[in-house]
Design a protein that fits this description.
It is a single chain. The protein is α/β, with parallel strands linked by helices and 378 residues long. The chain has 2 domains: 204 residues, NAD(P)-binding Rossmann-like Domain (Rossmann fold, 3-Layer(aba) Sandwich); 138 residues, N-(1-d-carboxylethyl)-l-norvaline Dehydrogenase, domain 2 (Orthogonal Bundle). Helix content is 47%, strand content 11%. The protein contains 17 helices and 10 strands. The protein is globular and about 60 Å long. The N and C termini lie far apart (57 Å). The site of 1,4-dihydronicotinamide adenine dinucleotide has 25 residues, from helix 2 and helix 5.
Length: 378
């Protein structure tokens, strides 16, 4: 299989050109400290793990990138044919990318960067598996978006609970508007990366940065995580409105009121309100809540059209984090005493048999109140 001509391997020049599919062709615009970063392991060979591994493998040939998948058929196909047979199926992957089913002491010890691209409800499992091998020296980067159902915890808190505060605090969290199917085509994309140890966010920024992939650093881990998790709940609501046949006014309303709700929850949990105006906030909300490329929007849309949740999830073929996060966020908001009408409405439709039309009626029929109620007076 030859290299896809729309996705050139990058060299060390600074030329940035549009290719024939509108992707960006060219090379890194900041120096990546390849020698210091050395090898990278990506855990999770779904849509996003595959696209990030492909991205990193294409950046620097002196840096070996390995992707871990549980399915031997996926590993065999990536190694022999440079194709993932399950996700991003038609995209030829960078030939330098290697795949493995092995996750052990030596596979983790031989890399300095470990990227976790595993759905949130399975995060604990992979954290437990890697705990014996991860050290303070590893740069760890989490890209999942969600809240754990059982505990109501954000990924950052689960990481610190399982790995302990010292190693946990050094973890970094990447989030923002980044459909895998576009990143893998080198479409211009901007994201944020946050860490409680800011120097780690700067390191993660250098790992990913490329002409078509721009990374902004942040110290607001909670804000970035709350925004990434809850935009999926709002995307479910926006999709449902579209499925019902509501038009642009309704979409703008649900996105904006959804953002106010995300901010109320985030501020209560200690986030910086400014984060919600950034890439992980408005950026990802805007992307996900208005695009049929979003799995969460699609789930909402199909519910609005009258399909059952069970049927939609059985035929989606990939994770829609917002579904489980809705359950987690519903319980969390009750626990922390934050008003969450959008989350409650989505919860009712997904898990309590409420008809989508009735959920909209209930949302619109609430008593009026101030626009920034619960945020400015929090
Ligand atoms: N697809 C996208 O465009 C983006 C996804 N994300 C986030 O990245 C995370 C992963 O999403 P996708 O890759 O799209 O999901 P996906 O549904 O395409 O793939 C999930 C992958 O995780 C693997 N997996 C599940 N449990 C595992 C475990 N215990 N150990 C090892 N592997 C396991 C599955 O086998 C599958 O390969 C989600 O939290 C998602 O919200 C973030 C940005 C963009
Ligand atoms: O998070 C995403 C883009 O930033 C992907 O959204 P979906 O999970 O809804 O497809």
């Amino acid at each position: 299989m030859g290299q896809d001509s729309s996705r050139p391997v990058q060299s060390n020049t600074v030329t940035v050109l549009a290719d024939d599919q509108g992707g960006i062709k060219g090379s890194r615009i900041i120096e990546r400290k390849a020698k210091a970063l050395t090898n990278i392991l990506v855990l999770g060979a779904g849509n996003f793990g595959t696209c990030l591994a492909d991205h990193l493998a294409s950046l620097d040939t002196s840096c070996h990138v390995t992707i871990y998948a549980r399915d031997p058929a996926v590993v065999e196909s990536i190694n022999s044919h440079h194709l993932n047979p399950k996700y991003l199926k038609d995209i030829p992957l960078t030939p330098e990318l290697r795949a493995t089913t092995v996750l052990d002491a030596s596979s983790v010890a031989s890399v300095s960067v470990v990227i976790f691209s595993i759905p949130t409800q399975h995060l604990r499992d992979i954290l437990e598996k890697t705990k014996p091998f991860i050290t303070q020296n590893h740069l760890t980067i989490f890209v999942n978006k969600g809240i754990e159902i059982e505990s109501g915890m954000l990924p950052c808190d689960i990481v610190e609970e399982i790995w302990g505060p010292e190693i946990g605090r050094a973890a970094t969290y990447l989030s923002g508007p980044s459909f895998a199917a576009e990143v893998v085509k080198r479409q211009p994309t901007c994201v944020s990366v946050a860490s409680r140890m800011h120097g780690r966010a700067l390191r993660a920024q250098r790992v990913f940065h490329a002409p078509h992939f721009r990374v902004y650093d942040s110290s607001d881990v909670v804000g970035v995580e709350v925004a990434g998790a809850l935009k999926n709940v709002v995307a479910l609501a926006a999709g449902a409105c579209a499925g019902l046949g509501f038009q642009q006014n309704a979409r703008a309303a649900i996105i904006t009121r959804g953002l106010a709700e995300i901010m109320r929850i985030g501020v209560k949990l200690g986030a910086d309100p400014l984060t919600f105006s950034g890439l992980s906030g408005v950026g990802d909300l805007f992307l996900t809540a208005q695009s049929e490329k979003s799995r969460n929007y699609t789930v909402g849309y199909r519910l609005g059209r009258g399909e059952s949740l069970e049927h939609v999830l059985a035929t989606l073929g990939s994770v829609a984090e917002g579904v489980e996060t809705t359950k987690a966020a519903y319980a969390l908001c009750k626990k922390i005493g934050v008003e969450s009408p959008v989350t409650n409405a989505v919860y009712g439709v997904l898990f309590a048999g409420v008809d989508v039309k009735d959920a909209v009626k209930a949302l619109m029929g609430r008593d009026p109140h101030g626009e920034f109620h619960g945020i400015v007076d929090a």
